[in-house]
Amino acid sequence: MIEVDRVTVGKTPSPDRSAVTGLISFMAASTMLMAALASAYIVRRGLGSDWEPVHLPFVVPGGALLLILTSLAVEIGRRAYKSGSQPRFVRSWSSGVALAIAFILAQVYGWNQISRTGVSMATSAAAAFLFVITGLFVALMIGGVLGLLWSGFRMSRGNPDKAYSRVSIAAYYWHYLDCLWIYLVLLFYLRS
User: Fold this and answer.
1) With 60 as the cut, is the pLDDT of residue 100 above it?
2) What are the E-state strand segments in 17-174?
3) Which of 59, 65, 100, 122 has the highest count of CB atoms within 10 angstroms of its CB?
């Protein structure tokens, strides 16, 4: 049986500074890569008369709701871990993982719907950018899901402060992914 230790022993726990620095560095690199792709998307859109906007199926922007629910579940789990509530932590963290996987599957379904309309990377520059940018985002999501699973499995081992640090870093990463996805959806809607 997994046991959650209460981490508030005289002081408020905080994530490990080196882990936070690593997360910030990774988020900065990911943001710069996405910004470069978004910039190329905007410039390419304005260059030629062959730009044909891609109609986004509802699951692409609708995924924002799944991501927000994932962040909410993960944040509830983080707070439950901090307070020592094992059942609430496991329930919330598991829900967050399931919602994240649902988001990934929804994006794959959205790509399939776009492909069924005859639009592909070879026939449309807009589709090529859409598939590359959302594909990169899904790769970041898969890494995030693995991080959620790893921190969830490791939470009962070792020092409770380190476990809390892992759980917090995973939660902060999900909040970042929410913001990044909302930005991308706005980019595709406002620039299509």
Assistant:
1) yes
2) none
3) 100
Going along the chain from its start, the domains and CATH numbers come out as 17-49+68-190 (1.20.120.80)
pLDDT > 90? residue 49? no
Between CA 105 and CA 140 the distance in angstroms is 14
Contact by Cβ (8 Å): 181, 64: yes
Question: Tell me: the pLDDT tens digits for 160-173?
Answer: 778 888 888 999 99
Give the integer Cα–Cα distance in Å for 98 and 108.
Answer: 15
Of the candidates 155, 147, 153, the residue with the CA atom closest to the CA atom of residue 171 = 147
Q: What is the mean pLDDT of residues 66-87?
A: 91
Supply the pLDDT for residue 192. 55
CA neighbor of 156 nearest in space, from 166, 146, 147:
166
What's this model's pTM, rounded to 2 decimal places? 0.85
State the DSSP H helix or E strand holding residue 20, giving kind and residue range, or none if neither.
Answer: helix 17-47
Alpha-carbon gap, residue 65 to 32, rounded angstroms: 24
* Cα-Cα end-to-end distance for the chain: 51
